[in-house]
Amino acid sequence: MNVGHILDGTVSQIEVIAQGLSGYIFPLAGRLFVETARDRDIMQAIGTPDALPGSLQRGMVCTATPWIRKRSRRHPEPSSPPSIRPHPQARTWTERPRIRRSMSNLRQCLRLYVPVLLVTTHVSYGCTRENQETGQPSPVVAVEPDMSYGWPRPRSAEHSAERRAMVERQIAHRGVNDQAILDAMLNVPRHWFVPANIRRLAYLDRPLPIGHRQTISQPYIVALMTEVLGLDRNSRVLEVGTGSGYQAAVLAEITPHVFTIEIVEPLARRTIEVFKQRGYDTIKVRIGDGYAGWPEHAPFDAIIVTCAPDHIPSKLIEQLKPGGRICIPVGKEWRTQSLTLATKSADGKLSRANLLPVRFVPMTGKARQIPKND
User: What structural domains and CATH numbers belong to the chain?
Assistant: First the structure.
């Protein structure tokens, strides 16, 4: 099935139907209004259509019709104010055969066009949904990866206006002002990392479910956690909790040295496939428990944890360089946690700062088995 051709044809049908609606129903409704308000005094009381703009003459004047219809039904022969005298030849609503014919024509037109419009809209939506569920990306203009920093950073023209609005209203407006972070959030298409059935919600100011009882974080939280790490292009970053891959993709905009671990195997394999399809070749993914970190690639300049243990794991602290930072939500499972930024000093001690209350999915695996003083 060539979805692009079907969608083009559907759009053309909708445009034709819209033109028919605007070309027939609006003039008919306008004529109906004029006939209903034929009395000169009533026309003067509510405004003569000839004094209105052309678009209003064609259709918008019909907004007064329900008022006249309601009034005439309640009072078949209304008494006029002293300043308004009814025309001698004026008739009530039910006594005007031309109006009844016009209303009949209007009803027939609605019966003809509205079902067709609904059907064609449903076909368009169904084709788009089928395209998404089969995993086929929508046809878009290809954009070459950005190689200006020395490693490939994928680019897309899809939903660029929505991404810009997300950055301006949800992120910059809340105080994230690092331009590198804002550019990263602008350049990474969030809808790439969201399931197809909720892709239309990708740029809302909220977390979204991605399956396996996991979520993709709210855009502002992704930006804030990335900003507080203080990264540059030479930083080595470990992410615990790959999830959808969105956070790792944002990190890969700043540095090519991104290592990420995911404990849920089906989710990890799906994310690896997304990275492969979209061109995130520098991100290294491991399937396993991230509680003990990734010692083979340690030490790290920064560690970011996107799931919540009830304490900071000692293995992660050990794998931080002196001066390194770890951003992690800490707290009870399925309760409000504290987003914590901890910095490791030269002697190995941590200085902690609580950033804000959050709610992340819990860290699973060994985090549930090992006591706090591990």
Answer: 3-133 (no CATH), 162-368 (3.40.50.150)
